[in-house]
Design goal:
Elements: E1 2-3, H1 4-7, E2 11-14, E3 19-29, E4 35-42, E5 49-53, E6 57-61, E7 64-67, E8 80-82, H2 83-86, E9 92-94, E10 100-110, E11 113-120, H3 122-129, E12 132-135, E13 139-142, E14 145-149
Parallel strand pairs: 2-7
Antiparallel strand pairs: 1-10, 2-3, 3-4, 3-8, 4-5, 6-7, 9-10, 10-11, 11-12, 13-14
């Protein structure tokens, strides 16, 4: 499992090993919370940020992202948003009874999909109890915001 922080800055390469650029941000579907792709800063003479859809990605690891094609888009569909614009990090999490369960520290990606969220209970809480994990199945989204949390944090 990789965190959003680990993915940002990773090299994006073609299948032949040519460096295409670096990941600047992650792109999600505001309705479902699903990972849709990456914002990549290309290595051109005039550097530009472009959208690389997930279907153009062959592999994601700590060594980088392999893309089968250099199929970039210049604009995002209205239902897509970058991780930084969604402002999930720091969002307070409450259970169905309104009890405070912490705040989102990061997103966790597994096999190219959003697996869930790393949850912080503050610096002292994290030191004594470690950060928790909130599965995507325990969350509902409404226009990009985390609406409801059910179940128990792992």
């Amino acid at each position: 499992m990789l965190s959003g922080r680990q993915l940002k800055g990773l090299v994006v390469k073609s299948a032949t090993g040519m460096e295409i650029g670096r990941i600047m941000d992650l792109v999600f579907d505001k309705r479902s919370g699903g990972l849709c792709g990456f914002i990549v800063n290309d290595n051109g003479l005039i550097s530009k940020n472009r959208y690389l859809p997930l279907e153009s990605v062959q592999d994601i690891s700590l060594q980088g992202v392999i893309s089968d094609k250099k199929k970039f888009r210049t604009t995002l569909s209205p239902h897509l948003a970058t991780l930084s614009s969604l402002k999930w990090r720091g969002s307070l999490i409450h259970d169905e009874l309104g009890r405070d369960k912490g705040s989102v520290a990061d997103v966790l990606i597994q096999d190219g999909n959003l697996a869930g969220f790393e949850v912080s209970n503050g610096m002292i809480g994290d030191l004594f109890h470690r950060r928790g994990f909130l599965s995507l199945s325990q969350v509902e989204f409404m226009d990009g915001m985390i609406k409801e949390v059910s179940g128990v944090l792992k």
